[in-house]
């Protein structure tokens, strides 16, 4: 009897809290936010909480760079109050969207604006600077370093990610001034998490004996610069151009010379090239996630940006602890 009473109490309490949360934020009143890619959607959810409805355009399981905007996406954007995208070439379709939103009341935020880190020659290993001088041709046929380009993968540097969160907070406050303090509070709490993440990256870096790492595409330029690491990318800023046989041979030599122990691959891009290089150089492979999107399984598990970044720290630690 006691047990039944307890059960009844528990159920009625659940019902009551259910009603309460429904009453305080009716679905229709939520700020509709269309967001291009997963990491920014995470930041908008963190800041917007229960006051926003986030619609992510690039679906789970799809590699973000190669995504093409659909007519449905366009409708989602035009019907939203806020549209958040990264910019810097991350969304090839962004200019077209900005054009068609010209006369619409949608608030647009380019969350990467002013935060794109220049990929310069400095991220190359000093040791191969001579090599490059002697063999200039290697440059074109060789591994891609994206000289002079800007890295659009802003969110992979927790310090820059924190600035993106600030920009998102300001945009939400402008779109929904009634909840200004709510957004400010949430943003500050999430920025504290990003600060912790930054500390964890620093701790990993302090222990590292190796400072070079091989990635599938050139997504980790901002991260490498922040923590004084050297990214060697198999492909360019977008993961769609496979390296030439000459470039592959150069990479394999570089891996051996630099005593690199692991080749990183990504879950949303074929690991074939990374596996080939690893096999030829006699080293292992590990995941380094550019956190551009989730796999469908990760989406079902509601994996967070912070979790994926901590997996990156753990795998970087393994890859960089020996030379
Ligand atoms: Zn990318």
What is the β-strand count? 10
Determine the mean pLDDT.
87
| Low-pLDDT residue spans | 17-25, 122-147
Broad structural category = alpha/beta
What percentage of residues falls in helices of 4 or more residues? Answer: 40-55%
**Sheet with most strands: strand arrangement:** 2-1-3-4
Hetero groups in this structure are: zinc ion
The biggest sheet, with number of strands, parallel, antiparallel or mixed sense and barrel status, is: 4 strands, parallel
Share of residues in strands:
5-15%
Structure, described:
The protein is built from 13 helices and ten strands. It is of the alpha/beta class and 323 residues long. The protein has a four-stranded parallel sheet, sandwiched between helices. The chain has a two-stranded antiparallel ribbon with strand order 5-6. The longest helix is centred in the middle third of the chain and has 28 residues. About 11% of the residues have low confidence.
Entry summary:
The protein has 323 residues and is α/β, with parallel strands linked by helices. Helix content is 49%, strand content 12%. The chain starts with a helix and ends with a helix.
List keywords for this structure.
alpha/beta; four-stranded parallel beta sheet; binds zinc ion; 10 strands; 13 helices; two-stranded antiparallel ribbon; single chain; 323 residues
Layout: helices, strands, pairs:
Elements: H1 2-24, E1 31-35, H2 38-48, E2 52-56, H3 71-79, E3 82-85, H4 94-100, E4 107-110, E5 117-118, H5 129-134, H6 137-141, E6 150-151, H7 158-175, H8 180-207, E7 212-215, H9 221-226, E8 230-233, H10 245-257, E9 262-265, H11 272-281, E10 284-287, H12 296-300, H13 305-320
Parallel strand pairs: 1-2, 1-3, 3-4, 7-8, 9-10
Antiparallel strand pairs: 5-6
Helix pairs in contact: 2-7, 2-8, 7-8, 8-13, 10-11
């Amino acid at each position: 009897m006691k047990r039944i009473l307890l059960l009844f109490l528990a159920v009625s309490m659940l019902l009551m809290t259910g009603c309460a949360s429904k009453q305080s934020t009716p679905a229709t009143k939520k700020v509709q936010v269309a967001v291009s890619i997963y990491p920014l959607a995470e930041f908008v959810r963190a800041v917007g909480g229960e006051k926003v409805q986030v619609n992510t355009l690039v679906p789970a399981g799809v590699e973000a760079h190669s995504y093409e905007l659909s007519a449905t996406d366009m409708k989602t954007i035009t019907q939203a109050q806020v549209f958040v995208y990264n910019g810097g070439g991350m969304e090839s379709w962004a200019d077209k969207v900005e054009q068609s939103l010209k006369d619409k009341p949608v608030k647009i935020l380019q969350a990467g604006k002013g935060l794109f880190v220049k990929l310069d020659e400095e991220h190359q290993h000093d040791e191969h600077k001579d090599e490059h001088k002697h063999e200039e041709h290697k440059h074109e046929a060789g591994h891609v370093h994206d000289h002079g380009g800007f890295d659009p993968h802003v969110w992979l540097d927790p310090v820059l990610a924190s600035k993106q969160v600030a920009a998102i907070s300001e945009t939400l406050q402008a779109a929904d001034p009634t909840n200004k303090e709510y957004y400010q509070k949430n943003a500050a709490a999430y920025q504290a998490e990003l600060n912790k993440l930054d500390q964890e990256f620093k701790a990993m870096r302090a222990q590292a004996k190796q400072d070079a790492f091989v990635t599938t595409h050139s997504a980790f330029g901002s991260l490498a610069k922040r923590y004084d690491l050297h990214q060697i990318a198999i492909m360019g800023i977008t993961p769609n151009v496979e390296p030439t046989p000459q470039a592959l041979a150069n990479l394999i030599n570089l891996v051996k010379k630099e005593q690199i122990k692991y080749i990183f691959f990504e879950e949303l891009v074929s690991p074939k090239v990374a596996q080939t290089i690893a096999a030829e150089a006699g080293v292992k492979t590990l995941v380094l996630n550019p956190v551009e999107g989730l796999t469908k399984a990760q989406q079902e598990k509601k994996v967070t940006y912070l979790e994926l970044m901590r997996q990156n720290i753990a795998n970087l630690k393994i890859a960089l602890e020996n030379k």
